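Protocol step 4 of 6: structure prediction from sequence.
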Amino acid sequence: MADPSSYRPEPGQIPDSPGVYKFRDEHRRVIYVGKAKSLRQRLASYFQDLAGLHPRTATMVTTAAAVEWTVVSTEVEALQLEYSWIKEFDPRFNVKYRDDKSYPSLAVTMNEDYPRVQVMRGPKKKGVRYFGPYGHAWAIRETVDLMLRVFPVRTCSAGVFKRSAQIGRPCLLGYIGKCSAPCVGRVTPEEHRELAEDFCDFMAGRTGTYLTRLEQQMHEAAEEMEYEKAARLRDDIGALRRAMEKNAVVLADATDADLFAVAEDELEAAVQIFHVRGGRVRGQRGWVTDKVEAVDTAGLVEHALQQLYGEEKGEAVPKEVLVPALPEDTPALSQWLAERRGSQVSLRIPQRGDKKALMETVHRNAQQSLALHKTKRASDLTTRSRALEEIAEALELDGAPLRIECFDISHLQGDDVVASMVVFEDGLARKGEYRRFQIKSFEGQDDVRSMHEVVSRRFRRYLQEKLKTGEWSPEDAENELQPEDDGRPRRFAYPPQLVVVDGGQPQVAAAKRALEELGIDDVAVCGLAKRLEEVWLPGEDDPVVLPRSSEGLYLLQRVRDEAHRFAIQYQRNKRGKRLKAGPLDEVPGLGESRRLALIKHFGSVKKLRQATIDQICEVPGIGRKTAETVAVALAQAVPAGPAVNTATGEIIEDETPASAGAASDRGTEQ
């Protein structure tokens, strides 16, 4: 581990101008590439006290052994050079997107004498028109099968094409009318290329003109009593309309745009992209990346734009690029995109309307992609085994923790304090073993004392159920209860090998103290602090930092997140029941419709309480007698908790949960 001060440049050496910099390790390998408007200011930020740096940044600067830079004229040049160097050196500390799957595209080889329509994957080739990418290859083949009826473009391989030309007979598609058979001279190279260009125009979204022309030809054929030709044109129109229906219009005015969305947690991020051409979703793709460097959503968007458009030019870069957050160097990035397109590109965040609604759909896809990625990792038996082994090694346990229990506390500004206990066995969630707790009220309540209480209650029940007497007594420890009739142990009778708490040193110390007070010394305890994903052990001043790629860290994170979800769901349900019984519910003769009308008119119970009787009478359906009854009831009622808009279910005052979570409910401990 190098000391950053050992290779820090001398003051005044670094120029105050735009540029790109590289950090190299002791073997001269490039480990990080970055750009800056001011090299002096940016590089100075890396050589401050390590305690003030983000942990990932601190890891990078201590791994590096040298830094060098290149001055450029503009920020756009810096952006281009940064992309080139990242592609060339593949630095380990730069964000690198990897496809969550290989996406196929529909390609038309316009660079050949007889253009061919085919499904293509991998890097794009010069002179080939691409449409997509698509989610599945079968979706492309279905579309092509419909369109070959109207645009009989060649789809065969070079070998089949050459063989048919030699024997003078077309392939099966030529016989059934789904290929114009240029191999045997049925059409000239110019006629076949015109078919391919019409195919590309239709796929690019210019559908209205072509359909209108076909309909006109159909009517002309019918008037001239060429009914077979008219019927064929009718079927062609139907085939094209079916192909168009597969891509419904999502944006008006034939919009060309790419929509980016990001779903992320502390360790990984998923990016989803929808390609909209002519107002229709023509393709979709997604990436998942490890957050190797300290990067926010805007930074992830910038990296995604660089990766997607780094090799693209022309129409592949759309007129609009819609993103969830604007990168730091938005003007430079917009100029870079405009240069690649050859015309102006709008880079912005959608604020309202259809584009914002579609962006929400893209974001849901990103969330599902990230969840699926994590589920795939968790479902693999080998991966789970490795995760348990890594946890055992990092925490110095005697064996793999086959049963892990995690505790989390949730409350709303000290009210409705609840706790959750989730159970993972062999790395998988056991929802039937989940438990939830109502924390007993005491003065000076906080998360630490709540954690001590819930851990004490859980293991006190374990000891009680372990003895016939129902009371813990070390002298009676050998008198164990018999299992229940189904052969399974009673609730809480099965102890975990590892207890995980949500939090750092204080929560871990509270849980350990609770176990020691009960005389339990064979259960390991650790805490997972969410901000930096550090693992804390009892009595240790420094945390255990698991590698970012560690499967053990992924498992601990999943356990912690499950406890979050389970706790917050219970806390919200409990709070909802308390808030539902408001003062208006107690007003005699006031039904649900008039209660909603009152809240809708005034906005909250608080404002309704301040209104006069005459103002209450202005609400439709509320007479003076009812208004007087409401005013008296509200005057006598004591406000409890935040005001609630019962018309929408929203809490009027701000609320800030101390923690978050949720899951399906199985059992409650009061």
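Step 5 (inspection) to follow. The first helix runs from residue 39 to 46.
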